[in-house]
Each structure stands twice: as structure tokens, then as C-alpha cells.
Amino acid sequence: MKQYFMGIDIGTYESKGVIIGSDCRVVSFSFEKHELINPKPGYFEHDAEKTWWGDFCTLSKRLINESGIDPKLIRCVGLSALGCDCLPVDENLKPLTNAILYGIDCRSANEIDYLNKLYGNRVKEIFGHEICSSDIAPKILWIKNNLPEIYKRAAKFLTGSSYLCAKLTGKYTIDKYLAEDFAPLYNLGDNSISNEFCSMFCRPDQLADIKQATDIAGTVTAEAARQTGLSFGTDVLVGTGDSGAEAVSTGVFCPGDVMIQMGSSCYFICLCDRLITEPRMWPGTFIIPEVFAVCAGTNTAGTLTRWFRDELYHELIESEQSNGKNAYAEMAGDIEKIPAGSEGLICLPYFAGERTPLNDPFAKGMFFGLTLSHTRAHLYKAALEGIGYTIAQHFDIFEENSLPVKKIMAVGGGTKNKVWLQAVADILGRTVYTSKITFGAAYGDAIMAALSGGAYSSWEELSKMIEPDLVIEPNMAAHIIYSRQKQIFSELYNRNKDLMHEFK
């Protein structure tokens, strides 16, 4: 009897879902767009019931209907969602407020300042890194300080994948990879809840139980079956964050493998054979047992290209509506002839503060070097290069920590922009690959479901099913230009950060 596996991922601006067969080939694919709620500067939210669960149900039903597959043949379901979110829910799993999103939401800056002063030199020891806007403990503290009635009513504080898993199975779980974002609320050594630190932030019973991402959390309940179209009793994975699932989708399995996720933000996962200490980034474990990772993330990438489209390329939006020409593809064509370095124009892409390696929620965007010869296309190319310089800063830190980089896999919507992809390879001076299957985290969820569902006996066996596609070789002449401008890029922030902080 044939078996199938479903994977669904909830992202910042859209959700994706796939059904695959036991051979990891995609049988059905679908996506659903949604909005990002930005009620005030520095606040970014999702309506968890409408967006997270609503998209999951829509995609699940659509995938089943369009594929014609009997739901009883779907052996296991994998899931992921944007990581580092904070959602308070009541005892009936009803969200008490909109979900506070990952590092792009910097409302907890005062709480971070308080924790830095409280713990002093012990901060890096306690959190494992410099506290930043991605950490969930300060977000919980913000709710406690600013929404006391919601805080009192909260039965659980969940992240996206935990919420979805609970909606499907009634079980409150979080995978070990994402639990690190809750530091210091968990003791990751023995997968327990830290009574020592919980007293400041929340009660131990308000946290989910730690499992592995590929563990079976439970099975689809009767109510979830009714809403999703899945069969009652179908196995459901614990799930994980979108970036971890995306890394899996590209075959980033072994130490030396690096994923660059070019989505709404950039996210990096560098796999290694040991746990390292690096406070500027987020070291920890990975989804795959006995493999460690150094993770990091910017606050803008695709969100910045979206800003350019909405603010500076109005006519392309209108053109897309009238003749179907993709605005982003047209924007990429607009910069093809702009030379490396954008003729001396440099952009600091900190339009929403910055996570790693700066960990500065008050960093600001900047264009430096403007002349009358620069055009809109120069501005856009410089912005993409600015994200490339930030990517390169992370690789410098990998090198400082003696982490060998053997393979770089780029994934996400940004890889559709070949000019941007080439600029990243040129700035790094390294070969960059893309995956043949580009459904991203949803595909990673599905193949993890295939592994846990028994279609594969090991990660090694599963890795043989993933093939690379594009090979982007660096232009070393361009690399020389970029190396010079990257130094200026770094110095611009160092010289201007005090002024940036005047506008908190």
C-alpha cells in the first residue's frame, strides 16, 4: 500500500504545504499568502488563529483535495513555523493576543536592558549569547509588564510550531532546537524546565515539554481531523522552526554544511561537530542528533525588497496587476547592469534594527556615498549588497571560531533573484549552491515526516534523496571590490551607532 507524507510551514508573509511519496517526490504543492501586522514601529505580529491555524487548515484540505489522495494514506504530518515567537494562550488553547513575532519585533528592548543590568557579566553565561530581540524570555517579561491581565490568564506561552502541534494533537511540545530560544527557561542538558529562572518570567507549567523535532508528538484529534481534512489518528511530529526545516530541505545535514535562508529575513545555520561559545550568534544543538549548530539571523532581507517594491517601484506593482509580469523579477532586471559595488554606494540594511552580529534593536538603515549619478536601480542593488555584506560578516565569525565551511546552500525566495545570488557569492568569494527542490521548509517538514514515518531508516539514507541544482561561482574581480567596500560598511555602523541610538 502506498504511503504519503505531508509537510506544512507557516512563514512571515505566506505559508506553504506539500505532500510527498515514499520516494520524496512532490505529489502536491500549494501556498497561501497572508499579512504581517505592524501596529506601530518595532511591533510585528500575526493573528495565530486566523493566520497560523487558518493557513494550516486551508493548505491541508487543498493538498488532499487537489492530489486526490485518501487521507488515510497520509502516514505522518510534519510542521514548522517562524521561530522565536511568543503566543500566550488560555487553557482552551485560545490565543489571548496576537503572536509577538521573532527578532523583527523589538518591543522588549527595555526588558533586555533590564536583564542586562540585572545579570551583568553573567548574561552570556545564562543566555548563551548576548540577549537580543529573538529571545523569547524578554518577550514573556514584556507581556508581564505591559499586559498584566493577559499574563495572568495565560495557561501556556507557546511558539508557532508548538501552537500548531497542540491544535492538531492536544499535546504541548517544543523541539530542543527551538527550546534554545527560550533560554534560560529550559535546562537543555536534561530537557527539563529551569525552576531557578522561571520564577522571574513564568510558571514552569506554562511551558511546553521538550522533545526532538522528529518525535511523534501525538495523533490528529477528531476536531482537528474535521478542520484539516486529515484522518483521525494520523501521526504528527513535534515540528520545529522554519529555518531548521528549510536547512533539512536543502540537505544541510553534516558539519561544515551552511544554509543561507534568503527569506523575509536572512537566517544562517552552520553545522559543526561540537558546541562552541560565540555570544554574537546563537550556538546550540541541531535537529539531527549529535550534530551542533551556530545559528544567526538578520532582521531584513525579503522585507527590504518588499519595501523597495512598495515605496519605489509603484509602476511595477500596477504592471503586475495588469499584465502579470512579476514585480520582483522586473526589479531584478532593473539592476542587472549596475556594476559590483553600485559605483561607491553602500547601504546599511538595518531598516528594522538588527539581530546578529550586531544584536542592536536600535540600529538604523543608511545609504552612504550618494551622488547625482546614482539611480533608483543603484539604491536597490546597494541594498541587496548591504545584506550580502552582513552575510559575509557571519562567515568571518565562522572563520574566527575555526569552523570549516564545506558547502553553502542558499534557499528561499531571494534565490529567484539571480543578481542578488551572484552578489552574495561574489562578496563571500565562495561557491554557492541551490537545491533542485525549492519548496523550502514545507518540504523539509515532509521528508522529516517520511523519516519518522518509517520510509527511511536513517538521516544518511534520507540525504541521498536530496540533489543540488544551481552552482554559482564567485567572480573574484568583483570580490576584490566588495572586500574593500565591506570594510567601509562595517565602519559606517561603528561610527554612527551612537547617533542611531538617539532615535530610540
From TrEMBL:
GO terms, molecular function: kinase activity; phosphotransferase activity, alcohol group as acceptor
Keyword line: Kinase, Transferase
Annotated ranges, domain Carbohydrate kinase FGGY N-terminal: 4-246
PROSITE patterns: FGGY_KINASES_2
Domain Carbohydrate kinase FGGY C-terminal: 259-451
Keyword Methyltransferase included in the entry's annotation: no
Record family assignment: Belongs to the FGGY kinase family.
Protein name as it appears in the record: Xylulokinase
Species assigned in the record: Ruminiclostridium sufflavum DSM 19573
